[in-house]
Amino acid sequence: MNVDGILNINKPAGRTSFDIVTLVRKLSGERKVGHAGTLDPDATGVLPICLGQATKVIQFLMNSNKSYRAEIELGVSTDTYDSSGRVTLRTDTSFLTKEKVEEALLTFHGTIKQTPPMYSAVRYKGKHLYELARAGIELEREPRKAEIFRLEILDWQPPLVTIEVECSKGTYIRSLAHDLGQLLGCGSHLKSLVRLRSGAFDLKDAVALSQLEDSFRHGLWQELLYPIDAVFADLMAVIVDEGDERAIRNGRPLSLGGRGSANGGRCRAYSIDGRFLAILHFKPEKGLWQPEKVFSQAAKLDIQARNRL
Predict the structure, then answer these.
(1) CA separation for the pair 103, 97 (Å, rounded)
(2) What pLDDT shows up at residue 60?
(3) Which residues are annotated as catalytic?
(4) pLDDT for the residue numbered 306
(5) Residue 293 to residue 54: CA distance in whole angstroms
(6) Which of the residues 39, 172, 217, 290 has the least number of beta carbons within 10 Å of its own beta carbon?
(7) What is the predicted pLDDT for the residue at 286?
(8) What is the mean pLDDT of residues 98-114?
């Protein structure tokens, strides 16, 4: 049986993101399973797991904004920028105040450049950087752009500072922790990390692995699935007739009566009987909407599941 949908998993510490994918694949029997954004093994929190046709929307989930709660230990640097690494520096932090840390954090608001950690999944000539790092190889890394939309201190218990961050895709919280210590002149590392939100999925609604496994034992796990279109709740929705549905199925562009191209020039398309058909992308040079992601035999819109978002 093919299953299409998204699980909002609360990943525990000590498990890799791929561990969770493997577990869901084994429990569900669905071959097409993938996660929408890696969490480090020590990190916890929201990990969307996509099954079946929902794997087509992984790229959209990965491109969505994220929120994190991060605990940073000042005065201790590690080679991995987190608590799993080897300590490379210890310094005195008695000179630090909450005001000094707040002032330093202001420099990270907005568009910033970050250098990815050597212990990261970034690839270099077909190898992950962490593979090279474990072999004792360190490379120069190109800084990458990231967006920090919100950054605030939640708790100050020196030498520990807990912050909440809302950021764009591709933001390395470990690098943020490391760079904060460099700016303050004391060094630092990421002590713990919780992903609070990934796109439409929130930690308060996330399912613990024990709850997930229990739902499989009782045959209730599909009640935990979110429909594919939950990812696109902020996009305009259109209902198309049977002729336009056939055009979408065949990948042909169509006119939607001059309707606008808000939200990145994309919209959701539904059949007359409520089936989610596709994501359409507006082509302004032609004034037409091109099918971008098409879903075959999509189930009718699950209002109850949508309301959980």
Answers:
(1) 10
(2) 94
(3) 40
(4) 43
(5) 10
(6) 217
(7) 84
(8) 96
Classified as helix, coil or strand, 285 is coil
Which residues span the domain enclosing 88?
Answer: 66-198
In a shared domain, residues 70 and 173: yes
Longest dimension (CA), the chain: 71
Decide if pLDDT at 218 tops 50.
Answer: yes
Cα dihedral sign, 288-292-298-299:
negative
pTM: 0.89
The residue length of the chain stands at 309
Q: How far apart are CA 178 and CA 67, in angstroms?
A: 18
Q: Are residues 191 and 132 in the same domain?
A: yes
Of 303, 302, 306, 278, nearest to 292 by C-alpha is 278
The pLDDT of residue 118: 62
User: What's residue 117's pLDDT?
Assistant: 73
Whole-angstrom distance, CA of residue 246 vs CA of residue 278: 12
Q: How many structural domains is the chain composed of?
A: 3
Residue that is last in its domain, among 182, 198, 214: 198
